[in-house]
Protein: AsnC family transcriptional regulator
Organism: Azospirillum argentinense
Amino acid sequence: MSDRIAASKTTDKGATRADEVRLAIEEDIFLGRLRPGTRLDEESLAQRFNISRTPIREAILQLVHAGLVEKQPRQGAVVAPLKLHRMVQMFEVMSEIEGLCARFAARRMSEEEKQALKRLHDTSKAHMEARELDAYYAVNRSFHEAVQAGSHNEPLQEIARGLFARLAPYRRYQLNHPNRVKDSFTEHDDVVEAILAGDPEAAYAAMRRHVTIQIDIFTEFVSIMGGNEIQ
């Protein structure tokens, strides 16, 4: 038993360090410090973060899964081009999928689930007012997961979870945009109001609008960084 507990603690610690590395590299990519084509050297990253290569490899795998990094023959892991058209397409699909989740949640959520969603929304308000971006994003993710679960449609939830994971770095980054956290909270407010009122179409429209708005933010970002594809 003690061996399993020790192994579990080691794994959790490793995952946490991998997440920290991933977030740092994501920031470097979005701020232009790591340009497309830049090779991610495991040894250099391990020295930079003063950790072993294991969490570095895990962080790189997460970045590959998100599409921010790609593996190339003889080069290993390199920063991938940010393709605007691909990102827009993914957000278009995400807006429909999460819109459907909200529509079904308005019909199917129990009163207990509705109140839990409202508590998450209320919790996010303090983080929004204090501009605690990491804390707000964590609650934001729980908020979306609660709406997805509230759909009570397993196939729909599976699709939503997969897309959410792929878009997570971009959704986190867009919170840095001026006034975005405040606007995000207001958009969530519309979603909550519609779900609590049991209005499926209003919930669908509010959630779809919330996700679609993020496309404009990234269009602006990619334009600033250099066109439809950052090379």
